[in-house]
Amino acid sequence: MRLALDLAARGRRRVFPNPMAGCVLVKDGRLIATGWHRAYGRPHAEAEALKLAGRRARGAAAYVSLEPCVTFPGKKTPSCAQALADAGVARVLYATQDPNPSVAGRGQKLMRSRGIGVVSGVLGREGRALNADFLERMRRPASLKPRVILKMALSLDGRAASLSGESRWITSPASRRLVGRWRAESDAVLVGIGTVLEDDPSLTARGMGRNPVRVVLDSRLKIPRRAKVLNGEAPTWILSARRGRAPGAEVIAVAAGRGGRVDLEEALTELGRRRIRSVLVEGGPQVWAAFLKGGLADEVRVFFAPKLLGGACRMKQALSLKDMRPQRVGADFLFQGSIAAATTRTHR
Ligand SMILES: NC(=O)c1ccc[n+]([C@@H]2O[C@H](COP(=O)([O-])OP(=O)(O)OC[C@H]3O[C@@H](n4cnc5c(N)ncnc54)[C@H](OP(=O)(O)O)[C@@H]3O)[C@@H](O)[C@H]2O)c1
Fold first, then answer.
1. Can you give the pLDDT at residue 166?
2. Was domain 2-139 assigned CATH 3.30.565.10?
3. Which of 46, 48, 67, 270 is catalytic?
4. In Å, how far are 23, 41, 65 from 52, measured between CA atoms?
5. 279, 277, 278, 273: which is closest to 73 by C-alpha?
6. Ligand 1 centre from 260 Cα, in Å?
7. Angle at CA 303, nearest 5°, toward 302 and 308?
8. Best CATH choice for the domain 147-308 from the list 2.120.10.10, 3.40.430.10, 3.40.50.2300, 3.40.50.300
9. What are the pLDDT digits (tens) for 97-151?
């Protein structure tokens, strides 16, 4: 079991929002195959080990870090409890029960009904420690909505993009690294389809930790096939008022609100149901406005970059400011500075 737990840990940072899982198949005192859940969307640990073992799995014992799963509506991967039984595995020992209410105890029941000897709680404490984050999330009531944090990056004159729509990069590399950390700390990061079409962001944690789930509001499902959020680096959920498919993402149909757009209350309810605890809403302006108007934001984090975008058509035409002196004046913040570079500016 210790080996199964060590193998499971190899999926750290890659399997979110799934739990880490490892599987070791032993027969006649010899190890015959191992497997682990390598990344979100990839096969489960049991499936990997069973594939390697082939017919040798018959009569073997399986050590698994987490109760083998069963199918339930909306689940994409096949049932591992079923697969172990079909392969003729004789005994299954696991560390922790799957707390997912759709699975809890059902894997064990299915395997017992197929004549498998099942032992639970083997190195249970270590198993719970390994997946502490997942277990905590799953204990969270599905009725709770996530905490919403609006993140904005603005020029000092309050622009989110140049006239041509560019917003890369308003802020400095240090600020972008900090955003990477915020993404790693969030369960999900959300943008509107306008931002995907204009900026094509990948919305990963930029190497600062595990990648969050990427959420795109796209009522009419117009996301381009080559969008970077569909690159498989992290799970992507498209919340849409339409039913449909987008390779590389899960399309989740959400009720339409005003103007046929995704209803934000419904969207947050759906994310809560999926045990998302926090969402970093990164824009763009229409999406920020909709969250604020609906009274749905809990916190804001606003970067002000020392530049003026005014009527600049391109980001490189922004005016840089130097010798900035930020100051508090009563309830306000005053930013004083001199204009560093007056580049020629073309207006559109
Ligand atoms: N500086 C920054 O921090 C920052 C961050 C992000 C983006 N940006 C910039 O912002 C610009 C894009 O922003 P944007 O305002 O045009 O687009 P956006 O806010 O990214 O996306 C707006 C679109 O989202 C869809 N949507 C679905 N449900 C919605 C709802 N309930 N409320 C609002 N929108 C909903 C709508 O399209 P459908 O009706 O088709 O679904 C809507 O047109 C780009 O220039 C980008 O560079 C800047």
1. 87
2. no
3. 46
4. 11, 19, 18
5. 273
6. 15
7. 120
8. 3.40.430.10
9. 988 877 788 999 999 999 999 999 999 999 999 999 999 999 999 899 999 999 9
136 classed as catalytic:
no
Q: Which atom of ligand 1 has the smallest separation from the CA of 261?
A: 28
Q: Is 41 left (phi over 0), alpha (psi -120 to 50) or beta?
A: left
User: Does the beta carbon of 217 sit less than 6 angstroms from any atom of ligand 1?
Assistant: yes
Structure letter (DSSP) for residue 92: E
Does this model's pTM top 0.85? My answer is: yes
For ligand 1, the distance from its centroid to the CA atom of residue 198, given in whole angstroms, is 9
Atom in ligand 1 nearest the alpha carbon of residue 259:
39
Closest CA to 145 of 274, 288, 337, 329: 274
The Å distance, Cα 286 to ligand 1 centre, comes to 5
CB of 262 shorter than 6 A to ligand 1: yes
Q: Domain limits of the chain?
A: 2-139, 147-308
Cβ within 8 Å of residue 271, ≥6 positions away: 145, 146, 188, 215, 279
Token pair, residue 119, equals 């032992």
